[in-house]
Design brief:
The protein has a single domain, classed as Roll (Chitinase A, domain 3). It is built from 3 helices and 4 strands, in the order βααβαββ. It has a 4-stranded antiparallel β-sheet, with helices on both faces. The chain starts with 6 loop residues before the first strand and ends with a strand. The mean pLDDT is 96.
Length: 95
């Protein structure tokens, strides 16, 4: 049996409040750079890397995050995704 775990690569911007996540999303829609907004506004340690989370496997992230990510195309950005950590704006990246 050839079983391979699903692998992802993504970056995100984490906000404590929904209003902040919606603000970030509006800035992205106006063409602002994801990595710059992540560095300036994300409340996650990944902010220093432009929100980059690197490669990870299915089951390593909270379910809400992973479900949203799995539904995205490469380079697509999610709307606010709520988890126990806050609200994520997620961008799926190529492996």
């Amino acid at each position: 049996m050839n079983y391979q775990r699903k692998e992802f690569r993504a970056r995100h911007i984490l906000c404590e409040e929904l209003e902040d996540a919606e603000y970030v999303l509006e800035k992205l829609k106006k063409g602002e750079e994801f990595s710059e907004l992540a560095t300036q506004l994300s409340e996650c340690d990944s902010a220093s890397k432009g929100g980059e989370l690197g490669r990870f496997y299915a089951g390593q992230m909270v379910a809400e995050f992973e479900k949203a990510l799995d539904g995205l195309e490469i380079q697509e950005i999610s709307g606010p995704v709520r988890s126990k950590f806050g609200y994520h704006i997620i961008q799926k990246l190529a492996l």
